[in-house]
């Protein structure tokens, strides 16, 4: 499912970096994907809370959890950031050493100024939120585990309401700022609603509660196709409401229910379009895909700058070329950076199970195994 969200984010950025010359096609494309970036990231945040809760075991320690997260997140990030530094220097838009260093340590989104949280690789702002989630997770899961199973639904409703209330809170506490041609709301308001880590922790927390509901058998059976329809409906609604309410308020719960429904389908062994081998493989490379795609789009947009905006056929070719380059880079990064680093460092050697060193395809195996039977391999691979 991650690759679908990553493609939504990529489609959103294509709208900005590779516009169609035909105005009617450009409007149609924007109506379809103009909210894709916000929706895709919201999905990632909810999914993170769900998957980490699903994979958590009573014997887990905070140190072990943080170690796995560190070696999952940082190797890819450092590699792509290094490429990003070279690219922005080449393009003449290097934001400065201070911002680059903040981007390296994934703290740049704590600064609300656009040039800071945009950073070197713009999509890495979401990793700053993920780092905050991971830091809080041992505490959050301990508190959530104290909630009686019969009351979990109350907390799901409460967290969903809080997510929906964030735009109103932003209006109340932030100074008025004029929008721009690109955004109908001010940059500080966008940052607070969409990028401020404590606020986005609500999405993560929603995923935690939904995972517990599925684990405890407190969530009624959700057929996958209706859940998918609800998720699509939430996305469509996000394109119709005021901009600030379309960032997360309309999609967080529908996306969470979709993840829960897909999990139930996996547990039952019933059909899921996300569980076939091509989709599993694309899901495996999706983290690298997410990190690489904006830099590749910037590079190709610069190469084709003199021909922008492209014709419809030219733009479709541009998109196909960009996606091909991103997929190849993502596969190489997953194969030669992400997988070896997780296999070597995610679990201390004295505790690493024998299969972690004997199996050449550990991550692929854990990604395609049934959710209920992943055990230690799941904790290593997520």
Automatic annotation (TrEMBL):
Any GO BP: lipopolysaccharide biosynthetic process
Domain of life, source organism: Bacteria
One of the record's GO molecular function terms: acyltransferase activity, transferring groups other than amino-acyl groups
TM ranges: 36-56, 77-110, 122-145, 152-170, 222-239, 245-267, 279-301, 313-334
Gene Ontology cellular component annotations, sorted alphabetically: membrane
Domain Acyltransferase residue range list: 1-334
Keywords assigned by UniProt, alphabetized: Acyltransferase, Membrane, Transferase, Transmembrane, Transmembrane helix
Entry protein name: Acyltransferase
Organism of this sequence: Frankia nepalensis
UniProt lineage: Bacteria, Bacillati, Actinomycetota, Actinomycetes, Frankiales
């Amino acid at each position: 499912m991650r690759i679908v969200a990553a493609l939504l984010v990529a489609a959103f950025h294509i709208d900005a970096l590779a516009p169609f010359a035909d105005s009617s096609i450009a409007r149609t494309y924007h109506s379809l994907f103009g909210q894709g970036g916000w929706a895709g990231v919201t999905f990632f945040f909810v999914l993170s809370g769900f998957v980490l809760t699903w994979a958590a075991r009573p014997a887990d320690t905070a140190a072990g959890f943080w170690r796995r997260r560190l070696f999952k997140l940082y190797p890819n990030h450092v590699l792509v950031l290094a490429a990003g530094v070279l690219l922005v220097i080449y393009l003449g838009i290097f934001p400065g050493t201070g911002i680059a260093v903040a981007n390296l340590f994934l703290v740049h989104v704590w600064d609300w100024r656009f040039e800071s949280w945009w950073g070197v690789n713009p999509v890495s702002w979401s990793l700053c939120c993920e780092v905050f989630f991971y830091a809080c997770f041992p505490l959050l899961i301990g508190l959530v585990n104290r909630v009686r199973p019969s009351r979990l639904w109350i907390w799901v409703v409460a967290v969903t309401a809080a997510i929906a209330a964030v735009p109103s809170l932003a209006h109340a506490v932030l100074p008025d700022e004029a929008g721009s041609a690109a955004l109908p709301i001010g940059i500080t308001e966008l940052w607070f609603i969409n990028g401020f880590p404590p606020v986005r922790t609500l999405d993560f927390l929603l995923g935690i509660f939904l995972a517990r509901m599925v684990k405890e058998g407190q969530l009624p059976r959700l057929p996958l196709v209706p859940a998918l329809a609800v998720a699509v409906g939430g996305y469509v609604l996000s394109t119709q409401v005021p901009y600030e309410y379309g960032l997360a308020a309309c999609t967080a719960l529908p996306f969470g229910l979709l993840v829960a429904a897909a999990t139930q389908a996996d547990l039952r062994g019933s059909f899921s379009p996300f569980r076939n081998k091509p989709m599993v493989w694309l899901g495996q490379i999706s983290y690298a895909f997410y990190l690489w795609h904006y830099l590749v789009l910037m590079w190709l947009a610069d190469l084709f700058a003199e021909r922008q905006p492209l014709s419809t056929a030219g733009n479709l070719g541009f998109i196909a070329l960009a996606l091909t380059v991103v997929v190849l880079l993502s596969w190489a990064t997953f194969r030669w950076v992400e997988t070896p680093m997780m296999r070597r460092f995610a679990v201390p050697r004295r505790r690493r199970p024998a299969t972690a060193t004997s199996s050449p395809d550990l991550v692929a195996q854990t990604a395609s195994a049934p959710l209920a039977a992943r055990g230690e391999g799941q904790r290593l691979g997520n």
